[in-house]
Each structure stands twice: as structure tokens, then as C-alpha cells.
Amino acid sequence: MNKMVRQRVTLEGSPHPRGALWDGRGTNLTLFSAHATKVVLCLFDPSGEKETNRIEMPEYTDQVFHGYFPELKPGQLYGFRVHGPYEPEQGHRFNPNKLLLDPYARAHAGELKWDPALFGYTLESGDDLSFDERDSAPFMPKCVVADMHLPGLPAVARPKHLWSNSVFYEAHVRGLTKLHPAVPTAQRGTYAGMTTPEVLRHIRSLGVTAVELMPVHTFVNDDFLTERGLSNYWGYNSIGFFAPHPLYAADPANAVQEFKDMVTRFHEAGLEVILDVVFNHTAEGNEKGATLSFKGIDNSSYYQLIPDQPRYYINDTGTGNTFNLHHPRVVQVVLDSLRYWVQEMHVDGFRFDLACTLARGPQGFDRHSAFLQTCLFDPVLAGIKMIAEPWDIGPGGYQVGNFPPGWAEWNDKFRDDVRDFWRGAAPVQTITSRLCASEDTFNREGRRPWACVNLVTAHDGFTLKDLVSYNEKHNEANGENNNDGSSDNRSWNCGVEGETDDKAVIALRNKQMRNFMATLLLAQGTPMIVAGDEFGRTQGGNNNAYCQDSKIGWVDWSITEDSQVLLDFTRKLGGLRHDYPVLRRNRFYTGRFDEVHGVKDVTWIRSDGGEAEQHDWTDSALHCIGMLMDGRAQMNSVPQDGDHSTLMLVVNAARDAIAFTMPPCADGMSWTCLVDTSDPGRSERDVPIGETCTVPSRGLALLRLNTHKPPPVPDVNAPDQDRE
Question: Is 389 a catalytic residue?
């Protein structure tokens, strides 16, 4: 459509707020561009196939094009064409032949259809300096004017779980319920499917307080994947930061309300919702990538370009481009997105993918960056859970422990060291700090143990079952000749690669899974379980299922006898974590003697019942130790004795069973074994002080001290961290 058609009524409108906002009488539209010369609004029929109107945005204020359109109603499909210089060598890639998505669109309709017309240059030439005149609109999804006031479930109060009580559950909207037998077929793999009562009950039964959803922002599938019949299943390929991915909705046209209703159901179940967000890059790739939105709106503002060669993109993310959070308007987009998801969609927190990218300045990673600080002190975002993935591939890209106070961080040190310990590749000294919320990394500037988010597995890498079943990755289904995915898995297959019917190997694998799960849920810090690990889900050795929207990537809810044992065991661990405050303290264990109260908060016990001494910490053959957590120690800075049960966690990664002598403890009579990974169904048993308890090879036990005093009576009015 080449002819400009003007609507009967077009008003000046306002340059803020951003996006397409319907006020009940008309729609105000805005678009930031510092270098464009003209912006044209394009309207489409309900099918999205026919362009029905083109209207030039009438005003330009403070680098924002804007207009008010009384005739635009909710449900209207639209996009933009942006005019300006096509000078790639100067960083400008304007091409009005390309339909562009509104960065602030609240909803999208349709799917991207890969075609050469999507590229600003002539794809067939391979020369990104060339200029392509083909119209991309037939192949583009469209933005939708959304009605944010549709009737839906009334919002309920946020659960607001204390950080110290939090247990995260990482899940994929599609993958979690695609195979769940209790979810109605039409709702499997959708926001609506997530709210099925059986799904919510299952998650709650694990002691989980928050579900961490993998990306739900609108994303597109890369063309090289679609050519193989694959997709960007994980969703780390965002193209819209405000719109929920429509294909995750049972009713795509109603995706916004369906997502909001999902959050409401989660809150009713006492579960918080945390979103995994990708602000470090977009789906537009590098100079050879498609022109879908930001690149055609204002390439040199939205992306970090090589300073003396602005034709090319800085690539600190490994995806081809890096979103430019040095630019205040780009920071505004990200902050506006976060506020929107909190205020309008009612989510409770965010996990930031490749968060180092968001805080990298001219001198490298800046832990005091304006963006990181604003996330904590913004009136809307203050108090919302903020979690960093503290690494990327850029310079100085590994920053575990270096994010500012108030942020939590994924801790891959826990993952790596715990894996090494249980496969027998590292002595016990390797994990003592990890059991204490990695106090060697996080205990500074008043940070709390919850800042350390512990994980044994995550979406990328082996599942828990595959961690004990494969020494090598098996990613052949990804179509990259098994070259993708990390080879540093720190896994152990227990003697056989992959599936086996060897009962001894199966028994060892089951015990190892219980060891990992118990270490995760009984350690200090914030634990994160990956969906399906609680009953031993497998991906057949695929450690990079990013493109597997298939049974490889979906959670299989077929529960075998062994699966049920692990599931029951995980539920027990989750209950114990909430029952015993010493397992989730709000201050770090230090091991220092408190002369006022006459106790150490934590004491490390040798197998002979004595306290570990200096020479023990240099013994590389030491594979067994007890972590005695004294319930009498101060729980916070208030100078008063603790009044909680004393527990001892014993770990033994040795090949042989060890006779562990029960240590004396003030007013103690005996120890009760609450958990034994070698015999998960065994009933509790008492062991008198001074006698030995056999800790099997590659086994873990949790014991509670029995004293002459009666056990603490739970105070239902006490803060959560003080309940027992």
C-alpha cells in the first residue's frame, strides 16, 4: 500500500505514557526515535493480512512521535513504518518498507513468517549495506491495541513470602503442563493450564513459595531453527517486553487477561510469580539480522555499536547484539516494562538473564550502575524480588557475589562444587561454605544468606536424573552434530552411560538424586528446584534443550515407583525446611564462638564426634563431615538466645560407609535421624550421644538433637522465620 490515507480525526495527543493506550474514547500512540524523520502508523484488518490505512504521526516532542486517534479501538492491529537515513556505516538502518513492532505493545497477534523481505538489506546479496524495497508486512506479526480493563478474576493480595522462607521452582509455561494428564487438552502448555488445581497442589506440596517462569515476553523463532523443524523453545529471543507470548495462551486473542488470571490463581494458592526476563539482547541479531522493531526504529539508540565501526554490533551476549542500557530512553523501556509487569500483571519478582550485560559501563561491570540501583529504589519496584544471572561472555563477565546489596544471585559455585563433591571429585572442604550460603562470596555489606540462590540444575544443562545417568551430553536431536551445549557437566553416570536395567546402578543413581536434592533443600540460602527434578525427569542426556518443543523438553508426568519415592522424599525435605528455622537462617553461619550465649552457631564435626581442627581442613582425603547447627544461637542481631531445635547435617561422599559418633551438645540426650538418603522410607530412629550411627557410602543424614527440654511450641503469631 503506497498511498498515504489520513483518518478523519487525528489529534496531537501526548508524548507520554508510552505505547498504544486506549482511554475509553480513543487511543494515544507514541514512539521514541532520536534519528527518524517521520513515523507512519499502519492499520490492518482483523486477519492481519490487509493493510487498511496509513497515518503519519502528527507530532514530535522530546524525540517522541505521538498522536491521538479517536477511532482506534481495542483489538485494532497495527505497526509502524519509520523513515530516516539508511546509513549502516553510521549506525542508521531506517527502512520504511519494513513494518515494525511497537516496543511498548501490550499484545501481539500472529506469527513471524521468515522471508527475505524481513531484512532491511537485500538478503540474497549478503551485503548489509544494500537496501531492500520489499514490504515485510505480510510476514510480520502485528501489534494489538489492548483493553487493559477487561473483566477477569479480581486480583488478590500478594503472598509476600519473606526471602528467608523462599523456595523457587523454575518452570516453562508450555513444558510444565503439555503432558499433564489432569490438564484439559485445550489448555495444556498454556497460562490457563498452569492454574489447573492438580498442578498448583503439586507445586505447593514441595514447599515451593515462588514459581520462576522461563521467558514469557513475546519472542520469535530463529529461521535456522524453523528450517530444521525446531524452535526457540526456551524463549530467550525477545522482541516485545510488554506483551505476554500469545502462543502460550489457550485463547491467544485474550493472552493478557489469561496471564493475569494465572497470576491471581497462583496468589490464591500462596505462590509468588517470578519472571525470567531478557533485556540483554533482542531477536534482531547483528548487522545481518532481520529488521523487526528496534533496529528499524532507532538502531544507534537501542543497540550498543562498536564505537569506531557503528555498522557492527557489540556482542556481549553471544546472540549478535547487546541492548543499549547506556541510553536513558532504553533504560526507560526496561524500567517501564518492569513496572508494568508489577503494577498491571501483578508479578512478584524478576530473574535477569545475563545480568552483567545490563550493568556494564565503559570501564566494565559496574555494580553501582544506575540501572541496578534504580531496580532496588524505584517506588514501584522496591520490595520486589530481584535476581541476577551474574555472568555473560563480555569482558569481566563473571560477577558471582558482586551484585549490590538487595539483589539475589544465581550461584553456580554451589552447582559446581556440590556436583564435584557427590561424584567424588572434591573433598568435603569444597562444600562447607556452599552449605552456609557461600558466605565466602556473599557475606559482606549486610547481605543475607537469601542473596545466594542455590541450584544443582537449571533449564540449561542436565536434568537431575541425567546428571547421574550421563557422563557426556547427547544433543544430536538439536541438529548441530552434538557441538552445542557445555561439555563441562561435572556429572557421573554411576558406571553405565544412559538408560540401564542394572539394579545396582539404578539404586545408586536414585540415592545420588536424593543426595543432590537433600543438599539443595537443607543448605542455607535460597534453593531453586527445576520442574520435574522432584520425580526424576529425563531429557535423554540432552543438556541444551533450548530448541526442543517436544517430549525432550516437556515434563513427563508418568510417575514410576522410583519416581514416587523421589517425589515423596522431596516433599519431606520441603516440609523440613519450613519446619526448622536453623535450615533457613536470616544471618550467615560463621562458626565464631559467642561468649555471651556460650555457643557457636555452626560447628563442624568429624566422624569420631570431635570438632574438626585446623589439620582436618587440609586433609584432601576427607569426604565426610557433620554440620551441627545450634538452635540456641542468635537468629538475628537482637541479643537473645535462640529457641529452636538443633540439627546436624552429615554428608559422606566416600566409597565406604562410615561409623559416625554422635557428638555431645548442651542438654542433649540423643539424636533422632530425620533423613537418610540411603533409606528414604525408613522411620525416624534415635541414636544416643556417644554411640555411632552408620552413614552409608555416598549418603546424607539429617539428625535432630533431643534435649531434656520439651521441643519448642510453634507460635502462630510469630514472623515466618521464627516458626517451628
Answer: yes
